[in-house]
Amino acid sequence: MTVFLLTISFIIIIVGSLMYIIEGPENGFVNIPESMYWAVVTVSTVGYGDISPQTPLGKLLAGVLMIVGYGIIAVPTGIISHGLAKSPKNHIKLKNCLRCDLDFPRHDDKFCSKCGTLLASKK
C-alpha cells in the first residue's frame, strides 16, 4: 500500500511539474501546486474542468494521465473484488439429493421434491 501511494504521489509531482512547464501561467497552470491539483483531479478521473490544457503536448500528457488514472482505479478494484469473491462467506451452499442426485438451487429446501429424501449440503 505504501509503494502504491508513493507511486501515485510521484506521478502527481512529475506530471504537475511537467504541465506547469508545458502549459504555463497563461493557460491556467499558474504554479506547480495548482498544476499538481490539476493532476490529482485528472488521475482520479473527476475532471472538474476548471483548468484544462490548451497545447497539443499538454493535451497528449492529459490523455496519458487519464489512461493511467483508469488503471490506478481498475487494478485495485479488480484485486479487491477477486479477494471478496474467493471469500468463504460468499460461497452459496447447494443441496443435492443423495438418492436421485437432483440439484436444488434453493437454499431452504430440506427434502428432495422428486423422491422425498433428506437433502445433504455441498460446497
From TrEMBL:
Signal peptide: none annotated. The chain crosses the membrane at residues 6-22, 60-85. One of its GO terms (molecular function) is voltage-gated potassium channel activity. InterPro entries: K_chnl_dom (IPR013099), VG_K_chnl (IPR028325). GO terms for biological process: action potential. The keyword Plastid does not apply. Keywords: Ion channel, Ion transport, Membrane, Transmembrane, Transmembrane helix, Transport. It is found in: Membrane. It holds the Pfam family Ion_trans_2. It is a multi-pass membrane protein. GO terms for cellular component: voltage-gated potassium channel complex. SUPFAM superfamilies: Voltage-gated potassium channels (SSF81324). Its main location: membrane. Residues 9-80 form the Potassium channel domain. This is Potassium channel family protein.
